[in-house]
Specification:
mainly alpha; two-stranded antiparallel sheet; 462 residues; Serine Threonine Protein Phosphatase 5, Tetratricopeptide repeat
Amino acid sequence: MKKIYLTLGIVSSLALASCSGFLDKEPSTALPVDGAITSFEDLQNTVNGIGYVVSGERGTYGAEFTLYADLLTNEFAVIKSNNQSVPISSYNLTKYDELATNPYRVHYQGIANANKALETSSQLNDARVKNLQGQLYAWRALLHFDLARMFAHIPSTVANPSAQDSGIPLATEVFAPEYKPTRATLAETYTQIIADFTQAIGMLDEDNGVGYMNKWAALALRARAFLYMGEYANALADANAVINSGAYDFYTPSNYVSVWGAEGTSESIFEFLTTDNYNAQRYSPGYYTDASGYAECAFNVNGKLYKYLSTHPEDVRSKLIKDQTSHKDAPGYYPAKYPGRGGSIYVNNPKIIRLSEVYLIAAEASFYLSGGAAAASFINEIEKNRVEGYTDVASVTIDDIIFEYTKELFAENQIAFAYWRNGKAVINSLGDEIMADNMRAIMPIPQREIDLNSAMVQNPGY
């Protein structure tokens, strides 16, 4: 599918302009989107524009959210505070904080755009429409899922997923401006997420090009959602479907370092498109992970991850330590997963899901279904593509699997969630143990949403 960059700014400008007068008057869930879809090109432009809308501000995919679950752990450190991501790493987000308000509003704006496009494109007589509508369902599922990861607890870790107001507001249609949402339960939230991914899977093509959802992306993301639900058999089935498709190949020791500055690499199942004109800004993950940038996501040299990488040169992942200890203002060691393209540290495509994570999903699900020996086969496949002279292990523990997440997916928004899903405490930057049920493990609902809607329930403790 042809990539269209020029229209991205136009589409997003129209979408945001259409709701700018409502931002301080209506809840984010109810923000209207003007304009009908009257052609295939209109629908294509809307699909393109969603990625732009949900990645261009603080706290979104193109900024801190790509590093969110890493910043929550003591594997990373703030070398020099620029008052950017520090509220995340210090677990000090407030209900007035931009890092909570922005992702809440922007994610629901993306959902609103998807809903409007689904509603107004239903009469289009074009065989290509089905695939684009599938992408919209997949987007809606992903945005709801990541809102749930930020603003609600992990369903497999709570005593009662059907507790009132335990989930997030669900937006599955075009709402009137006066609409006032209420929170669904966690069970209802994840049921909707799974339903949308399932709908998408039946509509999507198998190859839609870089930056677009395809069938395998929706399957992989549904596997991730099933894992958070503790539905391990379903997670394993979806993961195996992606693995057995043969559509993706592991990075190898010979190309592992270079892939991070490239677009559309062999493991990448879904990634955000970024160019010089599209979300090339200082809120990019490349700027947070560099001494010359915000310098708020460096390796903690006392952390388990850095100690492993710095003492295991046979592991190709050790080459992703960026030594900037000679920098005059923010000396330290930084992750090298966002080196930039075309000479710009701002231009990186965050990888939302890739093949290694699918293998880890399969390992985690297999562990709970069949034990450590069954899980080991998936861990061995990752390790032999990373570690020179690796010898297969016969069995693994859940701690081994979590550390594999840490080694393989650092700086990719995974580490804290892997600990919490499996009943383990995250050690934060202050040395505190944070369990999944801690009120600080989730963000506060933005106060503006409470002010605009008395039916909206705040997360406990905020």
